[in-house]
Each structure stands twice: as structure tokens, then as C-alpha cells.
Amino acid sequence: KLWTAAMFPEDAGGGELSPDGRVIEMLSEHTVEGMLEGYLLTGRHGLLSTYEAFVHVIDSMFNQHAKWLAMSQELPWRAKVASLNLLITSTVWRQDHNGFTHQDPGFLDLVVNKSPRVTRIYLPPDVNCLLSVANHCLRSEDYVNVIVSDKQNHLQYLTIDEAIIHCTKGLGIWPWASTDEGVEPDVVMACAGDIATLEALAATALLRRALPDVKIRFVNVVDLFRLQPETEHPHGLADRDFDALFTTDKPIIFNFHGYPWLIHRLAYRRANHENLHVRGYKEKGSINTPLELAIANETDRFSLAIDVIDRVPRLRTIGAHAKEKLRNERIECRRHAHEHGIDRPDIVDWRWPF
User: Fold this and answer.
1) Which is the most buried residue in 76, 161, 280, 334, by most CB within 10 A?
2) How many CA within 13 A on the CB side of residue 274?
């Protein structure tokens, strides 16, 4: 880190006291945001990492920079500059100790308001996808790139080569989590965000065990603007490609990192929008365990699996026993959290079972 105070002999060898460091840490988002903007305008590259709940401190600064970028692209004499990269971390779904005040994924809603020429939003599901996305963002110019990634340990789903392909596409089917290849799916299980992906995968596993003949298509979204039509954003997906992934008539259960209405806003013109059911943060939370917080907002594995049973017509009757078991499990998990202050070991240590 950059150290500008006096140096003493006992400080020798302390990397955190470097006089020429390149990591600057300060609990003042607007100060480091301003420093980063100036740094970028000198022709260099940078990244600002901030708590998700407090990135709102720089809302107006982001607005002004995004507007400046949009206008500067219309001036042929204005040279390109490295993109403003914002890493949004310490996210809403892992606030076991800070609670309700630190639960706000709404910065994404603000970013969507700005010009599609300059805004990009990425929600990598694992660390290899994060590496791929970060590599792309740090090489880019004249954008504001927003990356949402929690800083705690998470499962790894894709190899680095698979992650690069997946992130290049921006979204896609995960065939190893799906059971519909070659046939019509009963339901599309979609997700965007690391915790949202974990719970959607766990829900898919529960359904595959309880109802083995259910045909599930699992779709993960990294580049949020792929949900928009190509006429609305440079990263938008053509209708024919969107319909091929999400179908035109099957229920879509979409587990989202942020506020659920943002997905509806992006996809409202799609053919199958009436069958799109989004789960996300609904301003319900306190100092909860991770699963308890997810249950409160209905983004947990049990609620998602119940959603599928409720939305797929042929499962509404034959899935009654499975639905009862899922409800019982949800109650038991909340009871365990209240009694022990942590989630059950099988929840904490969950791995993809197939």
C-alpha cells in the first residue's frame, strides 16, 4: 500500500509500508473514486473495490463520469481512456455480522439508467469467471465496468478455459447441471450472481433427486445486459437466441443477485416474459445466517424448488410429497439457524452431487 508518512528502520521489509505502492486503501469512497478517475486520465489503469452497500456514496460521481464518457465518444479529438472498473464486493447475501444496513444491491439499478454505450455489468459465478471478466475489463477502454463478486470462499464450477468461453458468450446453458438435452425442458432454471447460482444449483439437485424425470435447463448469466434486446444495448441478445435459451412458453425461475424487478425491466419485451418469475432481494434481512437470509427473500434452494413444482403444470399434483419435504427442510434449516447461530453443516459444505 502507498505509505507517505515517516519510515523507520523497524519498518524495513514491511510490504504494507511501501513508499511507491499501487494499492491505496481509505474508508472514503468518494475520495478514492476521484483519485481513480484522475489516475485513468493520465493514461493508466485501475480498479476500485468497495462494499456493495456503500458504493452508493459515489452514485453522483459515477453518473458524471458515465455522462462524460458518453459525450467524449462523440469528439474525434478525445483520446480513449482506460475504463472505470468498479468491483462490488462484501455483498448483500453474506452479511451475517453486519446485517440489514449492509444489504443493498441497488447500485446495478442505477447503472442501467446510463447510456448503453458506456455501461457494462458482470456477475461472475465463480473465481475463474471472475478472472476472465477482470481480464476483459482491465483491457477495455471508455466504459464503466461493474463487477459484482463476493469476497468469501465459494465453489468453483468451471475450468479457466470453460470460464473464458462462458464469459465470452455472456450467458449460456450449463449442460452438466441440465437434464433436457434433446428434449423440451419442463422449466428453465436461470441465475445471475455467485450466491444466486449456488442456491439455483442446489435447488436443481433437490429436484433431480426428488423428481428424476423432470427436464430442467440450467442457464447462467454473467453479462447482465445480454438479457436486453440487441436493439437496446450493444451486448443485447437477438430475440431468436434468447428464445432458444429461455423458450417461448416454459416457466423460467430466475434467481438474481439484486432486486428482482431489474430483471423484469431488462427482459420485459421478450416473448416469454409472462412466464418469467424472478427471485431476488426484497428488503428482508437482519443479522442472519446466509441460508436464513436467502429463505427470508425466497432465493433459497427450497423456495426455488417449490417454485418449479408450482409453475410446471404436470408437477403440481405428483410433486405434492416432494413439496412437503422441501417445506419441512426449510423450517428445519431456520430452526437450526435460530438455535445454533450458524447454518447446518450439510448446507455450509454443500457440493454439486451429480
Assistant:
1) 280
2) 3
